[in-house]
Design goal:
Elements lengths: L2 H10 L7 E5 L4 H12 L3 E6 L2 H12 L5 E5 L5 H15 L4 E4 L17 H29 L3 E6 L13 H21 L4 E8 L5 H7 L2 H10 L12 H8 L10 E4 L8
Parallel strand pairs: 1-2, 1-4, 2-3, 4-5, 5-6, 6-7
Bound molecules: NADP nicotinamide-adenine-dinucleotide phosphate.
Length: 268
């Protein structure tokens, strides 16, 4: 390869032209920011969520970048719905290359002492975070295997998947820890199909899900003081890693969990 050809290849490393991405939870704060970023990188983006009131504006954000977008309504905790969402994506755009699992959260709504963690809440939080990720990924990867072009799976984990916290988070840490394990397991199983599987693992990102916690000035000040880079993460802080893991730039990177936390876990 000539130096000129190398430069051209390098320019395209993070581009997603002609690629198709499905974002489960693309209507959420993090999912919508990811959709916009993938659209800006050239991908066509299918957004899935349970409410058209949220999926339509998220798709509109993608279209503003000049990319094609499809807003879909469906529940990714239902395997048949996942199958349909993938089918709709492939019918509309002709292929599927990337799935991003951005459904999840709810930790702050289900804080209970570990020794009394209610199973109804356990099931709710584990389903929201883990079952959704498993079902959306299974359906998407079946389409990627059939497409024979490889693919990218990007899971959204959390630092809570790695670290304990004395605050009643049992179900959430279990779900995110399982997502980290599955990231490695799936990476191992699907490498033979050219499909890479990675996760990003943020700490607090300033979004509606954590707004009430961050509204407490003492809590926010304590959190910021523990973060070496001395600020709260924003959805934009996730985009560099998202583009890395969704593009050719990560062709030889799989099974990795990248913490995005301003250095917080480096201090543990
Ligand atoms: N925000 C943070 O500080 C933070 C930090 C670390 C990790 N994370 C992780 O990042 C991910 C996204 O968080 P976020 O803050 O963007 O949350 P969010 O704004 O609540 O987004 C989640 C989206 O998923 C959709 N959704 C929920 N259940 C669904 C289902 N069964 N089927 C289809 N769509 C469903 C929701 O839309 P509908 O309700 O309309 O369906 C919502 O738009 C989560 O996994 C969270 O754990 C967040």
């Amino acid at each position: 390869m000539t130096a000129h050809a190398d430069a051209k290849a390098q320019d395209k490393l993070f581009r997603l032209d002609d690629r198709v991405a499905l974002i489960a939870g693309g209507s959420g704060a993090i999912g919508a920011a990811i959709g916009e970023a993938l659209g800006r990188a050239g991908a066509s983006v299918a957004i899935a969520g349970r409410s058209s009131e949220r999926t339509e504006p998220a798709a509109a954000r993608v279209r503003e970048t000049g990319a094609l977008a499809l807003a879909m309504v469906g529940d990714v905790n239902d395997p048949m719905e996942c199958e349909r969402l993938v089918e709709e994506t492939v019918n509309r755009f002709g292929r599927l290359d990337i799935v991003v699992n951005a459904v999840g959260g709810g930790a702050g709504t289900a804080l209970h002492p570990a020794e009394q963690y209610p199973m109804s809440e356990w099931d709710r939080i584990v389903d929201l975070n883990l079952r959704s990720t498993v079902l959306a990924t299974q359906a998407a990867v079946r389409a990627m295997i059939a497409g024979k072009r490889g693919g990218r799976v990007l899971n959204i984990s959390s630092v809570r998947g790695q670290l304990g916290i004395d605050a009643g988070y049992s179900a959430y840490v279990a779900a995110k820890g399982a997502i980290n394990s599955l990231t490695r397991q799936w990476a191992t199983e699907w490498a033979k199909h050219g499909i890479t599987v990675n996760a990003i693992s943020p700490t607090f990102v300033e979004t509606p899900q954590v707004a009430s916690m961050l509204a407490d000035p003492d809590f926010k000040a304590r959190l910021v003081s523990r973060i070496p880079l001395k600020r709260i993460g924003q959805t934009d802080d996730l985009i560099g890693a998202v583009l890395l893991f969704c593009s050719d730039a990560s062709s030889f990177i799989t099974g990795q969990i990248l913490t995005i936390d301003g250095g917080l876990t480096a201090t543990q």
